Amino acid sequence: MKKILIQLDSDKFASVFDTITAYDAGVDRVLQYGGVTTEEVRNLVYGAMFTRAGDALQNSSVFVGGSDVSYGEEIMKAVVESFFGPVRVSVMIDTNGCNTTAVAAVRKIVSVGGIKGQKAVVMGGTGPVGMRAAALMAGEGAEVLLTSRSQQRSEKVCASIKERFGVEVSPAEVQSFEDIKGILDGAYTVLCSGAAGITLLPESVWVEHPTLRVLADVNAVPPLGIEKIKPHWDWKEKGRKIIFGALGIGGLKMKIHRSCLSRLFKQNDLVLDAEEIYKIAKTMHNK
Amino acid sequence: MKKILIQLDSDKFASVFDTITAYDAGVDRVLQYGGVTTEEVRNLVYGAMFTRAGDALQNSSVFVGGSDVSYGEEIMKAVVESFFGPVRVSVMIDTNGCNTTAVAAVRKIVSVGGIKGQKAVVMGGTGPVGMRAAALMAGEGAEVLLTSRSQQRSEKVCASIKERFGVEVSPAEVQSFEDIKGILDGAYTVLCSGAAGITLLPESVWVEHPTLRVLADVNAVPPLGIEKIKPHWDWKEKGRKIIFGALGIGGLKMKIHRSCLSRLFKQNDLVLDAEEIYKIAKTMHNK
Amino acid sequence: MKKILIQLDSDKFASVFDTITAYDAGVDRVLQYGGVTTEEVRNLVYGAMFTRAGDALQNSSVFVGGSDVSYGEEIMKAVVESFFGPVRVSVMIDTNGCNTTAVAAVRKIVSVGGIKGQKAVVMGGTGPVGMRAAALMAGEGAEVLLTSRSQQRSEKVCASIKERFGVEVSPAEVQSFEDIKGILDGAYTVLCSGAAGITLLPESVWVEHPTLRVLADVNAVPPLGIEKIKPHWDWKEKGRKIIFGALGIGGLKMKIHRSCLSRLFKQNDLVLDAEEIYKIAKTMHNK
Lengths: 287, 287, 287
Known about the structure:
The structure is a homotrimer. The first copy, chain A, is of the alpha/beta class. Chain A has two domains: 4-93, Methylene-tetrahydromethanopterin dehydrogenase, N-terminal domain (Rossmann fold, 3-Layer(aba) Sandwich), CATH 3.40.50.10280; 101-249, NAD(P)-binding Rossmann-like Domain (Rossmann fold), CATH 3.40.50. Chain A has ten helices and twelve strands. In chain A, α5 (128-139) links the parallel β5 and β6. In chain A, α4 (98-111) runs parallel beside α10. The radius of gyration of chain A is 19 Å and the shape is elongated. The two termini of chain A are 32 Å apart. Chains in contact: A-B, A-C, B-C. The interface between A and B is medium-sized, with 20 and 14 residues.
């Protein structure tokens, strides 16, 4: 029986990236649905729930993608609400790649050594990746600071993290060079997850920083988030520091994405969002 | 050479259910087309007709689905009109599953014993399933009564049946409990094919009915069409009666659907609508 | 690793013809995208560029189809502009089948014997097929005349050919029977590539023509472009003349189409437009 993935995407076209990745993960057939609205989810999911029965149900799964992360979450909610009792299929959400990217970045950082009790800073952390990475590091016992150019925005995101993940992350505002230095004071690790093509961390700040030990950047578009690093760096040692660039993290991200997709088809009741994806990643090598 | 099914669906999205079923029937590739209008059919069908040649043509087929049954019939007409001479591909129509559901229900009823010359009642019979089931039972020689809450609607549907299938079905109106008892007087079998979640046949009427021998219900959403039965009943004996619930019928429906799809690819000139699907079902086991 | 073709089509629905042909060429999975605009190309192509890496990139390719040839060329341009450096995928354009049809027609004509230095006439040559066939024959060293009912249109197309292909083709106007005779004076070969169902070359002109040796017609819809020939003729000898009808050419066209598609997946940097497709066809048998 063929493993069939129903790809739900709120963009006009279902993502080429997600479909190819699904095939590379061993899925037999991907049904691509673009322009999906929450109202249309139930009927599509019913088509997966009521075609195969019993153990065969695990051969049908749902993937929620698309570039709009918050709308994707509504679609995910509609998927799960379509199930009743044991009549359900496995589902994974990775809108805009934010779950697998955040998980891969945190796994890279954690691989250097425990971050428990350490100070971790997520710069430009109000986007989907930063928010998830902050939550996951807090879950690992780090004291996490999430920065934004606006105090109000970082506070709002920290509140969302508290509500969604049940962990504490502290908000911070970065307006100046002096702010950055203050925020990084005593920090063990920093993750840059701001907009593509914007430098958040100048070389002069990080290169001689006395406590910073692990640096990570998910921005692959020059100029990078961390000045003077390379995107392909993957556990690059510079002095006492270990650095991960976007492509170094990206390789692990792809592996995590594929591994999660392949697990969808081993049971019919998986719900893979950030936390569950992180748990799966923990069972994998970090390379 | 890969077996390719061109799925034409008038709904915005091509049905997940129909696509998965096609893969389970052994189709190699399904090309899903949603939002298809009759004007667009010819060009899509030409793409199937003119790509492969000779014997290879039987590896391309067309499936007409969608929830709008009457529009699906117009699409089916446009498909068949696109053919010329031997340059054609096989095609099956099962909009909203109505053909395979009606065929499965009638096959279940007939499996108990001949209905020839017997009185058969189709309650809530003005929908696509009821209309087809009534026609098929009339074709088996039953004296069929088709009921509706409105005499006018049941008369209209009986006239459509006469025109489309060339068989006689008698219209009847059901407004009250007394009407039901009268209509079922002397009946051998009853099929409930009304709207989901509406009870048409009270337990007090059927449970001690002196002549009713076979009961079937295609409604799986509680409350069921026949009061106090279970959807999974499949040749359930209650006293002298044999009862088929929606899921009992549904299992056979799926098998018929898959079997028809698989036959599409054995020749290039099949046209599978209700009658032809019924003929194919007759060659199959009824379980 | 599965060979995946991303099919970009500016028509509402991605062409059934192109998809089936891709599967017959050995492509494993076709991702069909219909209603594609130039603005949306980059994101779709990025999905192919950034999913697989290194040698694996050659397993993802792009096909540009659709019935609108000039818009397809803009899409093709947008595809190529999405690449940077070695991060790219192979791509083929065959909007409305015009490249493979023109190439097949010219290969058939050339297969009879060299056309170098000979006079070649493309009648009704202002469409996509005629324009490409004229350019390819000029590239083979023929003296090509391209006719239209309007001198202005044929001049415009010859200028486009000069700009796009860097070869000289002479424009000509055909308004009357006498015009045709004059234009064909001394010609060695004639290709009819006008609109479907319109006769361009009367039997009385060609049947006893003293110099015409090879005739070809890509119109399969009666009345044909060349009067009194048959579409299935493939190297049909009539007196001293060799004649190719639309279906005779069509068989080779399909082979060329499939062969090009299969080559896309052998490297990640092919760009297949008319000239490159012609070069590939030269390495193939002409039957």
